[in-house]
Specification:
The protein is α+β, with helices and mostly antiparallel strands. Helices cover about 20% and strands about 45% of the residues. It contains three helices and seven strands, in the order αβαβαβββββ. Strands 1, 2, 3, 4, 5, 6 and 7 form a seven-stranded mixed sheet that branches. It is globular, with a radius of gyration of 15 Å. The model has no long low-confidence stretch (mean pLDDT about 90).
């Protein structure tokens, strides 16, 4: 199972890093939860996130907004994803925690460490494919960059 979770994380990161954002919603079930929050908010049990989506439709809308409506400085990401820790099963889903770091590459070539943290996932089989029912992105820093546009 560890291999399947590691492969899912690698495929997820490659889709984002390769600017295949239209593929991103397919990694999730319907319904789903995707949010990005700080470690401090997560520790306090505050569910509000910088990004929050509770359906595949909301994920697709986010991609459409990035492609057609939002104005932001063009950038790309490079994910480095650690090995997942399988935490057990709860509510019919396998729970996993995976560390990550993301380097942001700006159009002019400047690179900077953009985010570090951990993915807290609830994973389920969906039509024979492992998918995220929940992905809560917990960033280590409480300072979230205002250029956060692309999913982590």
């Amino acid at each position: 199972m560890l291999d399947r979770v590691a492969r899912l994380n690698a495929d997820y990161a490659r889709a984002i890093d390769d600017d295949r954002l239209e593929d991103w919603p397919a990694f999730f079930t319907e319904p789903c939860l995707y949010s990005i929050t700080s470690a401090d908010n997560h520790r306090r049990g505050m569910p509000a996130g910088v990004i929050y989506a509770d359906s595949k439709g909301m994920l697709k809308d986010r991609v459409a907004a990035l492609r057609e409506a939002n104005v932001y400085e063009r950038q790309s990401y490079r994910h480095v994803v650690g090995l997942p820790a399988i935490l057990g099963e709860r509510d019919g889903a396998m729970r996993a925690e995976t560390p990550f770091l993301v380097v942001r590459i700006m159009r002019d070539g400047a690179m900077a460490l953009f985010a570090t943290g951990r993915y807290l996932d609830a994973l389920v089989e969906d039509a024979g494919v492992l998918r995220f029912r929940e992905r809560v992105v917990v960033c280590d820093s409480s300072r979230i960059d205002t250029l956060l546009a692309i999913p982590l």
